[in-house]
Amino acid sequence: MQSEQIHLSHQQQKGHPYPGRFITLEGGEGSGKTSAIQYIERYYQEQGLPVMLTREPGGIEISEKIRTLILDPAHTAMDGRTEALLYAAARRQHLVEKVIPALQQGMIVICDRFIDSSLAYQGHARGLGMDEVWSINQFAIGEVMPDVTLYLDIEPEVGLARIQANAQREVNRLDLEQLSFHLKVREGYNIVAEQFPERIHKVDASLSLPEVAGQILQILAALQEDFPPTVSN
Ligand code: TMP
Predict the structure, then answer these.
(1) Surface-to-core class of residue 222, CB atoms within 10 Å of its CB (0-12 exposed, 13-18 middle, 19+ buried)
(2) I want to staple 94 with a disulfide (CB 3.0 to 4.6 A). Which of 63, 118, 125, 136 is the partner?
(3) Is the alpha carbon torsion for 121, 118, 149, 9 positive or negative?
(4) Residue ranges, the chain, pLDDT below 50
(5) DSSP-assigned letters across all residues of 31-51
(6) Alpha carbon distance 21, 147 (integer Å)
(7) CA 89, CA 66: separation in Å to the nearest integer?
């Protein structure tokens, strides 16, 4: 049995050392992160706050190239550890080139997926062990953890049916995994959410889009009282 305990440094427990805000979205396939992110962007823009949207794996040229390599449905031979290392490499480059400079400028960075995806998908669902995947990611992220993570929780059967109904969405190598894999991803997310109850806020993503947006905006409004963004346009 792999250990699932994750230990954070003091700095990581506080998030990152920069003036901006780092918000990540997490969830299984078809959980509606893309639509949710647009609501969040509008929420901050309406307040005149500087906001930047980005995604993992990707967000910049080098990491988008790594994304293509990882997610190519033809790459069925890819070993689980290779996959985990490539996600961590894409994460590192994206952080140094895009996320950290924006946080240094005081921006609100909203990122579609971050380290919790690696813990749930590679650590738990692939069975590499969350502590092992956490440790390779330490090398990638240094002291940068999100301030807040919104986890869009949905039954994989419902999420996968949603993406099958969306003909425009790219089908990637991980979408093609069996239902049992996606059930493990959800289980993994729930383990991580239990370990970090202060950072990770769970949202019921099986509801309608306006209801999901309502839950998210409520969470963000409550957090804003805890740490109001320091910079405005
Ligand atoms: P997306 O569908 O949200 O664009 O994400 C691409 C896929 O990559 C998705 O199936 C989740 C997976 N993934 C991981 O397995 N580990 C990771 O660390 C990240 C960032 C994504």
Answers:
(1) exposed
(2) 63
(3) positive
(4) 1, 232-233
(5) S-HHHHHHHHHHHHHTTT--E
(6) 6
(7) 8
Helix, strand, or coil (residue 83): helix
Residue 42 is encoded by which pair of tokens?
A: 């509008």
Q: How many residues does the chain have?
A: 233
Which residue shows structure tokens 């919104």? 150
* Residue among 56, 60, 99, 168 to mutate when testing ligand 1 (max atoms within 8 A of CB): 56
CB 87 less than 6 A from any atom of ligand 1: yes
The pLDDT tens digits of the residues spanning 88-131 come to: 999 999 999 999 999 999 999 999 999 999 999 999 999 999 99
Packing angle, helices 130-141 and 80-94, rounded to 10? 30
